[in-house]
Amino acid sequence: xxxxxxxxxxxxxxxxxxxxxxxxxxxxxxxxxxxxxxxxxxxxxxxxxxxxxxxxxxxxxxxxxxxxxxxxxxxxxxxxxxxxxxxxxxxxxxxxxxxxxxxxxxxxxxxxxxxxxxxxxxxxxxxxxxxxxxxxxxxxxxxxxxxxxxxxxxxxxxxxxxxx
Length: 164
Ligand code: HEC
What we know:
By secondary structure, the protein is mainly alpha-helical.
């Protein structure tokens, strides 16, 4: 920690004193460089996976956030069919089940359990939209978001070399 602070101080000083100010990206690099403890004191449990799977998982995650944003916008318009369509896009399918098992294989069993429970919550969100009842949809969306945040609070990715 002291090393990181020293690096920040150094980077700030370098930025102030040198005529060629240190660009922000270099400061970020200086923060990571000293002893690059790769978890940066992140106490969450690692889910180990090779880089290509980690990139895929993050792309899926960005898609989930996109879907949640679509659901909220559709709820604002009370467009229940659009909510159903968006929620189904992150619902349970044989493909998502297989992928969650595959991605979770490098972590505690709980990761896959939570991942499957998350998709099941999206199924309930899609079903709730069929009631056309705003408060039921909001309650179901709340449960889905809780599945997102609980998993993020507990797990992080850790990149490992691919299995031969
Ligand atoms: C079963 C676990 C799990 C669930 C459920 C989950 N995520 Fe994630 N998500 C992760 C992990 C693991 C990461 C990588 C975090 C890390 O290593 O710091 C991640 C990363 C992300 C990121 C960052 C992507 C990037 O490009 O860096 C976003 C955005 C995200 N999740 C959105 C969501 C949203 C929205 C939901 C719910 C609708 C959700 N996630 C549900 C496990 C989960």
